Amino acid sequence: MSEYGIVKTGVKIKRLDTILEEINAYQSEGFGVQVGANARSFLNVMNTSVADKIAELWEFGEQIYQNLSPLTAENAALDKAVQFGGNSRERARSTYYPIHCECTEGITLNAETLIESDTNPAIKFLSAENITVSRSSFNKAKVKVVSLQAGEAYTVALNGTLFSHTLGEHEGPEALLGAIAALIEGDEKREFTASYDGENGWLLIEAVNVESDNAMLLTDNLTTHSVTTIINFASEEVGEISLPNGAITKIVTAPTGFLSCTNLCGYIAGRLLETDVELRQSYWDKIFSRSSRMTDSIRSAILMNCQGVTAAEVYENRTNETDDAGRPPHSVEAVVDGGSNSDIAAQILASSAGGITTYGSVSV
């Protein structure tokens, strides 16, 4: 193997002094005189200029070699190098907040809906989806009576469970809605809380889980005053934006019927454009993205495809017995920091082998 070029340790280039020394040696042998002894001689000046250009070619070749490896490539060359492993640089992303939006039922919030935090400076958020607010997808609702008719049944169905009260001869809205509230409060599932607001004359129904999405049906003699639906909003600025619960409350631009908003759930963190150092690190974390049916594959898929994930580890119990961590036989468990539960679950489902059960504290 040659002393220079591609060697066992990588690439070794010829420097200017080595190249000049070799040229002078060749010419000294051919001419029979010592070339290079006089720094101002014609041959030495010519050889120096030629050697300098040859040295530049060696350096150029070294750059080509280094730019083929994710360990040493930079900028656009690094983007191309990581593509051999099926990876790419993470682009800048906005932070997503699930916002509890109280609206008149039936209005649509689109990409032009703008809200902001009550912090200084204010952080602006735009709706990330077009959603029509409906009782079929609610977290909180205010129910009121349309008409009173003795002997008529008034029913509220929450996720398929019916809560019904037949109006008595001398009962009014307060007694009616109070009776339905008592039925909801007494439900064994305890998925909802309910209370009658006598000042405003409506029944307030709230999901116990502030992150849940629920369905409600009403008989024609009942209707909604407002429905609170969880809608994702994206920050105008890219990067991770962390705000406390209840900080996003101001409505800037919205259709008529958008009554209030607030953030009560965690957020999906955004990020700045991935740097070269970060990309080199994530390359090795995601290198198994093209493989499948193994714990490294699941981890790579989660890191690559789930926004907001900062760390992930996947554990597997290959034995026929429950292990010390409580994992059942032939199961996998993903421990993930950040990201959306539904996004993470989708990657686990797509990457895990058939017949392998999943285990963990979050069910989707």
Task: Briefly summarize what is shown.
The chain is an alpha+beta fold and 364 residues long. It contains seven helices and 19 strands. Helix 1 packs across helix 2 and helix 6 packs antiparallel against helix 7.
- Secondary structure class reads alpha+beta
The share of residues in helices is 25-40%
> How would the global form be characterised?
elongated
**Distance between the ends:** 58 Å
- Rg is 34 Å
Question: How many β-strands, per DSSP?
Answer: 19
- Taken as a percent bin, the fraction of beta residues is 25-35%
Unreliable stretches (pLDDT < 50, length at least 5) are none
Largest sheet: 9 strands, antiparallel
Average pLDDT: 92
By DSSP (H or I, 4+ residues per run), the number of helices equals 7
Sequence of secondary-structure elements? EEHHHEEEEEEEEHEEEEEEHHEEHE
Distinctive features:
364 residues; alpha+beta; 7 helices
Task: Please tell me about this protein's structure.
There is one protein chain. With 364 residues, this protein is an alpha+beta fold. It has seven helices and 19 strands. The strands form five sheets. Strands 3, 5, 6, 8, 11, 12, 14, 15 and 16 form a nine-stranded antiparallel β-sheet that branches. Strands 10-9-13 form a three-stranded antiparallel β-sheet, covered by helices on one side. It has a three-stranded mixed β-sheet with strand order 17-18-19, with helices on one face. Helix 6 (295-305) runs antiparallel to helix 7 (341-351). The radius of gyration is 34 Å and the shape is elongated. It starts with a strand and ends in a 6-residue tail after the last strand. The mean pLDDT is 92.
